[in-house]
Amino acid sequence: MELFQAIANMTAASFAQHMVNGISLGSLYALIAIGYTMVYGILLMINFAHADIVMMACYFAFFGITAFHIPWYLTFIGTIIATALLGVTIERSAYRPLRDAPKNSVLISAIGASFLLENLANYIFSGRPMNFPEIPFLSSIITVGSIKIQAICLFIPVVTVICLCILLHIVNHTKTGMAMRAVSKDYEIARVMGVNIDNIISITFAIGSALAAVGAIMWGIRYPGITPYLGVMPGLKCFIAAVVGGIGNIKGAVIGGFILGMGEILIVAFFPQFSGYRDAFAFIVLILILFYKPTGLLGEKTTEKV
Amino acid sequence: MLKVRDLVVAYGGIEALKGISIDVPEGQIVTLIGANGAGKSTLLRTIMGLEKPRSGSVEYNEENLKGLNSQHIVTRGITLVPEGRRVFPNLTVLENLRIGAYLRKDEDGILKDIQRIYELFPRLEERNWQMAGTLSGGEQQMLALGRALMCRPKLIMMDEPSLGLAPLVIKEIFNIIRRINESGTTVLLVEQNANMALKVAHHAYVLETGRIKMEGSGRELLENEEIKEAYLGKKKK
């Protein structure tokens, strides 16, 4: 009943406003969640450092513009490349030496990499929140009727869809993508086919980190206060998004991202009295999905033919 | 062509191969028979670079393969049809064939070879766009064979290609193995189905708990009383 009342009280304009917010937050979650799901798909490990890769990307962009005065568009390109390299470096130094070790060791190494990045950032950049620079046009507010929208909110979904199309093309229609899918199911036999596993894993980390960088830049424009711990909460939620969608499944991660992003915004919109619980929403969804569909929405049951 | 000498392979402290020597001459079908746990698969996996030997050597055309990774060994013209088929279930039939040709750059040759494999296994062509995971066991085995042929191997190693298949399908698979060999590919075949394997083999080895127990031509072993009793399920007269 309360819900109906809340909807009734809402004007079309404010509903549109919430939708725009929800879609843009969902898109950001989706971009970051893809990185979790791709790495899990190939290495069967949760890359805890992914959240901090997002954070580092924010700082790369921040310093590129404020300290080095590089034009914002060049900074963004540079940030994407630097973040991809960072992802590959973490894989090489923290995960590759443990390729034949038990899964738990890799997981612990991932947590270590995460703490290292957070504390390094805290040490070098200081813990004080910094203001992500305003980007001409993207940071400006557009007014349509009674709705006020930050321009970036309109770009986020578009950029996300473009990134997703490119990604799906790579995964489904290129030789590298084919090798990625093969490695994710059976790396030993992929190796027998002549696939260089280490290269494929590096490419996976590069792609996941590059997408995280795209998400991070847009995150910074949308929510300009950046701190060394800014990746933690979104990282957790994006990991949940990947699980909700079915971990290892790219489309699932996108759907999961949108469910969490939209849900979070709409809860606050319809039940302002619960707005303090907005972060709890993701965890409630996680518990429900683990109860009723543990493999996630698009997750496949693993069956083996003998 | 392939010379294995005094090969010892151990998992932890347990030796799966306790000093094995075999020869695979070019153009032949050589088979290894033996019970579960005799070390047959371990031998193939070691030749393919998936296990590291403790001692001994694997020589291929005078080149020592020791220390090479699988992805380099395949460039020498050796490939493996693994136990349990292990096609990529999330790739289509066509993609499975294409990944077999992963290191090749000659697109025309690849297309021609795919066509050739579809002629060999018409059922695969019908299932061209199906995910390999949805195929029946026999079809998956054909796909695993086709995938291995896509790298144009000089030596093809097969690990229990008849495992879990219906008798009629087994017959078909063995016919294909013969045809693959007649077209000039050397075959190293590991089988529990000793009867079928010995019938196609030029030369055969009997493996028992990590050691070669006996060797001879396929026909010799087929007629050997001990083999008859232990592996062919026939009583001594």
UniProtKB/TrEMBL annotation, chain B:
Transmembrane segments: none annotated. Residues 2-234 form the ABC transporter domain. CDD domains: ABC_TM1139_LivF_branched. One of its GO terms (biological process) is L-amino acid transport. Keywords: Amino-acid transport, ATP-binding, Nucleotide-binding, Transport. Pfam families: ABC_tran. The keyword Ribonucleoprotein does not apply. It comes from the Bacteria. One of its GO terms (molecular function) is ATP binding. Belongs to the ABC transporter superfamily. This is Amino acid/amide ABC transporter ATP-binding protein 2, HAAT family.
